[in-house]
Each structure stands twice: as structure tokens, then as C-alpha cells.
Model the fold of this input.
Amino acid sequence: MKTQVAIVGGGPSGLLLAQLLYKRNIDAVVLERQTRDYVLQRIRAGILERGLVDLMHEAGVAGRLQQEGLAHDGTVISYGAEHFRIPFTKYIAKPVVVYGQTEVTRDLYDAREACGGVTEFRVEDVVINDVTTARPYVTYRVEGQARRIDADYIVGCDGFHGVSRQTIPSEARKEFEKVYPFGWLGILSETPPVNDELIYANSDQGFALCSMRNENLSRYYVQCSQSDSTDNWSDAKFWDALRQRLPESLAENLVTGPSIEKSIAPLRSFVVEPMRWGNLFLCGDAAHIVPPTGAKGLNTAASDVHYLYNGLRQFYEDDDTTGIDGYSEKALARVWKAERFSWWMTSVLHRFPGQTDFDARMQRAELAFIRENEAAQASMAINYVGLPY
Ligand code: RFL
Ligand code: PHB
Done:
């Protein structure tokens, strides 16, 4: 098979890029290791920055998002018994939108099917070849049969555990990593959210987050140990832990019910440089990971897609390689700012093993300062809502 752009990975980055390229008559093939149903059953991000919403519009897939997405123009932060609100739209004229990654991915798969785009599922043994030549190609297997795709460019959208990043020789790639000594235990429950905006909670028992998917579907997280297992967490234990981590005045609105999903996510910061090697480009989690505290993972994947899509468009439409040549540098400049914000939010909201009373007071003082200071609130709002592309 021959295509213009071969995309390894059919998660949100790969699908969004493919759909944007399709709109410009640029041919792409998507290779996905799992089945569509498997990809759609992963519960992940919930907060979309305006930049991603705009890209969904540009890709022609924003119909349901526009109908069902919930615009949030602020968020609540609590520490101990105190809580306050950051009013995003006081500082930046943009809300964020609550719309699950699962729905983003479903809309993109539906659009891809409707336009007859080629997606190969259950691909195995993907190998990316000859990316430093003008004739790169990908080999893989489907149901035991060997296949090959020749392309102008190959894009690695295959997430943190994919193969593309490793295609860059180790001596040419630099990796930066920080692993946090805790995880997030998340549940989904068919109950009304405890609050009409998200609550990020710093408490003596650890971090908690109250989020949602819609008015009758809540997503909650509590900080747990790195080695924890969902087997240790009955629903009752989870609800008790969550209640204890919220100020009483907020916890009293908590409606509990059976969980319909329960999972644990590790927390990590990671960046690889560069994000381009020859005719291979990396996008999204394949190139960088953030702890979910700032809601930046999917959104940073989207900004990569924005830079790469515009670079590829410039190449195919105007024969100009400026955009693709500047891709790695431009994408990384924004990635590092999202890394900083996610690391900072994680640092100020979690309980760290070995943390002293002094450290806990420093977190509290920082949160109290944000509560009282408009410049600090503005900085947080601008970063949370999303830096410009
Ligand atoms: P994905 O979603 O991991 O998709 C990669 C796809 O590549 C496939 N794949 C391969 N395909 C072919 N060949 C191979 N060798 C392959 N290896 C892998 C995989 O099967 C998969 O389908 O990466 P992508 O597209 O870059 O998207 C990134 C986002 O998924 C991720 O950043 C976010 O989910 C992070 N995240 C959040 N981001 C936000 O912006 N806002 C949030 O509110 C938010 N909350 C979260 C999150 C991530 C979480 N977890 C579980 C880590 C909350 C949580 C709990
Ligand atoms: C979510 O709704 O899953 C969510 C929201 C905000 C975050 C992380 C996850 O910071």
C-alpha cells in the first residue's frame, strides 16, 4: 500500500491528524494495535481546551461536542476546610469544555468511517523503516499476514508504550523523566456531580478531584499509593476517602452510587527531544506525558497535531517545508510549558511520602496566596484554560 502520511496509533492524536489531513485531501492510513471497541472503552481525559475544540471544528467533527459539551468558566480549589474559585473568564475570555476523550475518539472514528478513510486494526509487529531516507515505510502484520505501507512521512501517535519513539536512535534522543511516588484511583459513577464545576482538593489525607462527564455521570479521583490495586478499594471505601478529602460544606452534596469503572493511573512527567527524526514525527503521548493534575495530556497532544497538520498542509499545498522543519522546536516550546504547569499543580496539591509539616504549610500558603492574589489567579487561569498555539 502507498499513502502520503502513515500514522501509527489510532488514539485521539492519530485520528485527529488523519481527519484534518482528509479535509485537505491529503491521504493518510492509520494503524492501530487494538480494536476500535477497546480504544473506546478507555476512560481518560475529560477537559478540552479551546484549541482542541477549534481543531474538532476544523476537522468537521464538532457537532456532538457543541451539543453535549459543558462549558466551564471556573474551577474550585480546596485546602483543608477552605475553598475558593478561580474564575477563568475574569482573566481570559475562554472557558474549558467538559467532554470525555472517549467521546472525542468516538466522533473521530465515526467521521473516519463515514469518509472511507483506511484504518487497520489489530496490527502487530509494527516496524518503522528508513525514516532518514526519502522513502520511509512501515511493516506490520495483521492476522499473521505481513504488510507494508510506503509513505512520504510517518507520524508516531502510538502513545507512551508505542514503538515510534524507539525508532529514533538512542544517541540522537534525549529523554527527561520524573515519576511521582503516588497514583490516582479513578471511578466513574452514574450519579449527579457533587458540584457544577470541578473541585481540586488538597487535604491531609491526600489529593482528590471531583470531575464529571455530564449531569448524571461523575468522575472522581483520589490519590493512592503507587503500588495500590483496585482490589483494595471497595466502592464504600472510595466514597469515604473522597468525602474526607473535601471541605464539609462541599462533601454534604456528594451523591454516591455503584462505580461503573474503577482504575488506577500512575503519575509521570516525560519529554523526549527531538520530536522529529528524518521523516518521522512524534505526536502526543508518544513524545510526552504529564501527570493528569493540569488536564494537559490530550490538550498537548492536540497542540502537536495543530503544528504538524499545518506543516504538512504547507508542504503539500505550497511545497514549503518551513512548518515541518520547525515542528519539533515549536511543539516542544509549548510542551515544556504544559509540563511545568502540570508538575506545579501536582506539587502543590498532593501529599508526598516523607513530606514534613513545613512542606504541607508551604502548599497551604501557596494556595492561600492564589486565593487572595489576582495576578496568581490570572496565571493559573491562563495556563489551565490553555496557552495559545
Ligand atoms: P493514546 O491515547 O495513548 O493513543 C495511542 C494509540 O496507539 C496505539 N498503539 C499502537 N498502534 C499501533 N502499533 C503500535 N505499536 C502501537 N502502540 C500503541 C494504542 O493502542 C492507542 O490506541 O495517545 P494519544 O493519541 O497521543 O492521546 C493522548 C491522551 O490519550 C492522553 O494524553 C490523555 O488521556 C491524558 N489525560 C488527560 N489529558 C487531558 O488533556 N485532560 C484530562 O483531563 C486528562 N485526564 C488523562 C486524564 C490520562 C489519564 N490516564 C489514564 C493516564 C486522566 C487520566 C486518568
Ligand atoms: C477527568 O475528568 O477525567 C479529569 C479532569 C481534570 C483533570 C484530570 C482528569 O485534571
Summary: The domain at 180-266+350-385 is CATH 3.30.9.10 (D-Amino Acid Oxidase; Chain A, domain 2). The pocket of P-hydroxybenzoic acid (ligand 2) is lined by residues 45-47, 198, 209, 211, 219, 292-293, 295 (CB under 6 Å). DSSP finds 14 helices and 20 strands in the chain. The first strand starts at residue 5 and ends at 8.
